Amino acid sequence: MIALVKTTEAIVSETIRRESLLNLSDRLLVAFSGGQDSCALAIVLKDLGFDVVLGHVDHGMHALAREHAERAMEIARSLELEMHTAVVTVEPPSEAEARARRYEALERMADELGATKIATGHTLDDQAETVLMRLGRGGHAIGIPLKRGRIVRPLLDVRRSDTESVCRVYGIDFLEDPTNLDVRLSRNLIRHRVFPSFPDEVVVALAHMGDRSRRMIEEADLAVTDAWHSSVIADEERIAVRRDAIGAEGGVASQLIRAVLLELGIEATSQLVADIREKVAGTTGAMLHLPGGLAVWAESDRVVFGKVTERSYPGVSIELPGTTRLDEWGIEVIGQEVAPGLADTSKLTAVFDFDRLGPRATIRSRRPGDRFMPLGMSDNKKLQDFFVDQKVPRMERDSVPLLVAGDEIAWVIGHRIAEVFKISGVTRRAIRIEVKPI
Q1: 8 Å CB contact between 163 and 40
Q2: Is 263 exposed, middle or buried (0-12, 13-18, 19+ CB in 10 A)?
Q3: How far apart are the C-alpha atoms of 327 and 225, rounded to whole Å?
Q4: Which of 201-205, 208-212, 332-336 has the highest average model confidence (pLDDT)?
Q5: Which of 88, 148, 161, 240 satisfies CB 3.0 to 4.6 Å to 101 for a cystine?
Q6: Complete DSSP assignment for 57-89
């Protein structure tokens, strides 16, 4: 058994060397559940001479979560390793949400502890399970990456049976997560019902398939690096891609979509990539909902991936003349009576016939069926059509404030006033309205 532990350490050491995963100068935060894989990972890395600290994340996902945190601390003491615990809330409770919160907590913990790398206990068996799950959902046979950012997975060449043996040799009474026994979850069904009927060679072959596919995808991603830099604009909430880059023929366009989906933490199945190209990229205004409350939609010159942020504000009266602060809009509206001949207009400044506008104007967001007569036109136009003509992105239209007098739109702020509220030869009083961000 001791020889088996040495063999496991040799495999891990070779993986680290071959993939340049770690340096001996690294301080490693090991994601530590107290289960057999994370215990074996901590033991092996410590034996290999690394500076190891343990990080336990309590999701509260099952009734024994607090007890498991205490047991994990006892195991850490027996290993003579420092352990830190983070408690996170998982809303809504799901495996995907728990995973996201876990990695966020580990990243914060690593920053606080000065850890340069975060090591997780994923094994060769996890790799094989992931490949089979993705194939079952119609996706690619893509395995778990050995490294991403500062996350590293040194056990990906080690079998789960070997991590159990390491724990037995060291006398570690490791924890069993009760959720790992729930065969309603795809991974657990594969682990407990499918893999036991497979020869070991099949499991190993699946894992190697996942590794090869991952490497091929990573190499192909190099071909989209230039396209990403020239076609993608990203911020905290959205990723926008030039529409012609996504609609183009060839593999680079599909790889670009796949890269965006992976950046958002969404599995990039072949069907999803094809749907985005065929059902969204070719039609302005087309939208497709994505997992996690996200969506992808086409605007005139770009395809946008991100959160759907529709807002609706009821009418709020403004003081004319006077100054009204609208915190919910993030603006201040300043009305000042001026001479009718004054022509002082810009995107956020406009002059109106005060008698026509009246002192009881309101600011609100759009409503279904809104129409108005844009300046220079003789007929009413649907506000929706006006936004399309003005190339206002679909997801920003609810955020455009409207100046309304009675039931009539007087100004689509930032765009155009209505014809019937303009200064004319019969105007006796005028009011200048300026909108300022606050």
Answers
A1: yes
A2: middle
A3: 41
A4: 332-336
A5: 88
A6: EE---STTHHHHHHHHHHHHHHTT--EEEEE--
pTM score: 0.54
CA 123, CA 141: separation in Å to the nearest integer?
Answer: 17
Helix (H, G, I), strand (E, B) or coil at 218: helix
Phi, then psi, of 199 in degrees rounded to 5: -65, 155
Residue 228 CB neighbours (<10 A) = 18
What does the alpha-carbon distance between residue 247 and residue 64 come to, in Å, rounded to a whole number? 50
Structure tokens at 186: 């795809």
Helix (H) or strand (E) segment spanning residue 350: strand 349-353
pLDDT at 159: 93
Amino acid in the structure at residue 4: L
Task: Decide: 315 and 333 in contact? Cβ < 8 Å.
Answer: no
pLDDT digits (tens, 9 = 90+) for 326-348: 888 888 999 999 988 766 677 89
CA distance 414 to 420: 18
Give phi and psi for 4, each to the nearest 5: -65, -40
Token digits of residue 417: 């006033």
Q: Are 270 and 138 in contact (CB under 8 A)?
A: yes
- Cβ atoms within 10 Å, residue 147: 15
